[in-house]
Amino acid sequence: MMKMYWVVTWFMKLCMLCMLLMTLDTTEAQKQLKVGFYQTTCPAAEQIVRDTVNKSVTTNPGMAAGILRLYFHDCFVRVRLEIIDQAKAQIEAACPNTVSCADILAFAARDSTTIVGGFSYAIPSGRRDGTISNIDEVDLPSPDSDLNTLQNTFVAKGLSVGDMVALSGAHSIGRAGCNSVTSRLHFFNGDQTDPSLDPTYAAALKEKCPKSGKSGTTNLDPVSANRLDNQYYLNVKQHKVLFSSDQTLLDSELTATLVTKYSSNLTAWRNDFAAAMIRLGSLDVLTGNNGEIRNKCGVRN
């Protein structure tokens, strides 16, 4: 994500709806996705999503991070967010039974990237929604996962280690609960602080997340919390990241090299992030007559 855990924050109203994946030739399904899929059947769809996202993020900048987290979750499992329901309702009024919730989410993630990151990409569409929910499908690494666990998770889903590092840059926006970092701050090897944390950064975190308090939140990026950029990679190099699973990107030559590359080359990271987002959105897709077009994203038809 990209560690595929994402902390539920105050701006996310998240409801887990884990879809049982259907047996489908993934390559053939991906071929049915295309840019401008709704150009004839619902030409206003992408603009409706864009307007909805713009309105939401302008009111609450943190929502951009929520949408991206949701997109990452949806591609590994399946979840929903109120903003997607809002866009879906407007699209249903304009084009009933035409645009899937999965595509609405993909558009919203792209538009969030544009608003808080200043760059965009063309996202193929044509996905259909799943029809079966299974909460046991969730299998997300924790914030303290090691590099091997993270790599295995991505590879198992058909993504590369490079995709993992590029998508990890999404941790430059949003907030996390103090309970997700308490063990690293206060109980590392007993009652110590993780020595891989920069001491000054650790001290600042302890003020926001004391040992006795686990209900607070703190920015994932201490420098530019509402800007999707390559600051995350500078933070990793400086040992100023919340999760040990972020810091573990320095534990192999390949991932450390990519961290260094992205920390000094914003354009390279943007290009690789966009490409990885497109690949992520092509995982285990349902197309054609498979699945359904949900009338409401939180409820199967």
UniProtKB/TrEMBL annotation:
Transmembrane residue ranges: none
BP term (GO), one: response to oxidative stress
Enzyme class, first EC level, given as a word: oxidoreductase
Plant heme peroxidase family profile domain residues: 32-301
Positions with a binding annotation for substrate: 141
Any one GO molecular function term: lactoperoxidase activity
Annotated compartments: Secreted
Source organism, top-level taxon: Eukaryota
Catalytic residue list: 73
Cystine pairings recorded for this chain: 42-95, 101-297, 178-209
Residues carrying the site annotation Transition state stabilizer: 69
Chain residues that bind Ca(2+) 1: 74, 77
Full protein name: Peroxidase
